[in-house]
Design brief:
The chain has six helices and eight strands. The protein is α+β, with helices and mostly antiparallel strands. β7 and β8 form a beta hairpin. α1 crosses α3 and α4 packs antiparallel against α6. The mean pLDDT is 95.
Amino acid sequence: MTAVFPDPAPLVGRFVRLEPLVDTDAPELFSAIVRPEVYEFGYGGGVAGMPGDAATFARELRSHYPFATGIPFTVRLAAGPDNGRIIGTTSLGDIDVVNRGAHIGWTAYHPAAWGTGVNPECKLLLMTLAFDAGFERVKIQTDAVNARSRAAIAKLGASFEGILRHHKIRADGTWRDTAVYSVLADEWPDVRTRLTERLEHAAAPQLSGV
């Protein structure tokens, strides 16, 4: 079987709609995710790497997200009073059609989305996109100190592969160890079933007034 580069089209679920990220999304995305509680456990290199203002975030958008190697998405709410509002971002990057691998990452959400159906639905939509395109392995990784993110990845059903020690330098100059997880094509049906069942009982995010 061969893999193909997925079509960069919107992906629609019950809670969210993923749309290819464009430059004009920068101001609303900045408002949603650029906050210390999102960056404190390693996102974007940690709090020291957090953009100081919306203009800086916009300038760095193209260098931070994997436009050259994949498809960055905005995460928008798909229903309710905040329908269409940007609540975060996620990407299918490091796309390698020869070796049939991809990486779901660059993911951040407004804190109001944490613990809701947003993350599992995003992962369901992106893994469906990848495996339907013929990929064999989808990688998900995070800073090893990010216990919340690691628990969320494990809960998805991804297998823990190990720790890449001193993998990257954080914005404050310290070394980041990276925890690596993956889902293989033959594991995907079980993971998909688990995610689908989980979403049947998941809560919708509540952003009104936030």
